[in-house]
């Protein structure tokens, strides 16, 4: 790690330690973003080639909004990392195997310190605002079984740092749910009057709810129990609205919707977004996802990728300062809009809606093929 990178790492760790909602002025954010861009331009060869093809380099970029953003598919095409990918401390891959392991997006992390600091800061602020230490009931496979899953890595950190000895793992890598184990764990929590924290993907909760309805099982979990769901139903044969999901969880587990929080994360990022704080979350239809102060989100024109004003529907772009040693500016294929309070995802960009992302991807492929 260069001296410049080590200094940036120290600054970011201090910023993250202050909390996800501690004040960070636009000027300070811009200063950090430009310094990180210079580092990534110097040390991340595929990204530098992409920037050069677009005529952008340190000295010509004056504001964080001008930092070239790579489409998420770029993580499938190149090792976007500062340094040797073989020396990465962690390697996270996107889900899905239809195109084979080599076609999954890959995020190389030479150092997980920033990643872990960011996930802990966000989770504790949104799921544990009361500082509770609870049994963590995970419907996410453990990291020992899915070492390249960023979600499993996150769940492992949560269990290790915030869970009690009664925490447990109740789903296998192939998605199989340990229904008997779950029932026993929750019955024990009810008998002890001990609140729990449940983690899982939205689709895992749907399957669990189906089983609970089929067996006519309900658990009246103690007050203070909370739940984090993540992911959606992309590529699934069945879709359930978040209102329906939370209503089912309230009915079968006794956890009110105000204690259910959705986490939105991406393999290509080091930070996460949440749509509420456990115990005070709004109704699902009224929520916006909010990021930490070291992340900025914009909606961009689907064709030109130029930033849109608040309320304008476009493809979302995130700039995550915690992505120090990969690429901080990520152009997603998610359609959505921003407000001063946060952003909302409306779906996936397809066809003409994704034209700008396709052109950016073409630029990257041409640049790294030179």
TrEMBL record:
Protein name: Acyl-protein synthetase LuxE domain-containing protein
SUPFAM superfamilies: Acetyl-CoA synthetase-like
UniProt xrefs under Pfam families: LuxE
BP GO annotations: bioluminescence
Transmembrane segments annotated in the record for this chain: none
Residue ranges constituting the Acyl-protein synthetase LuxE domain according to the UniProt record: 29-364
Gene Ontology terms, MF aspect: long-chain fatty acid--protein ligase activity
Cross-referenced InterPro entries: ANL_N_sf (IPR042099), LuxE (IPR007534)
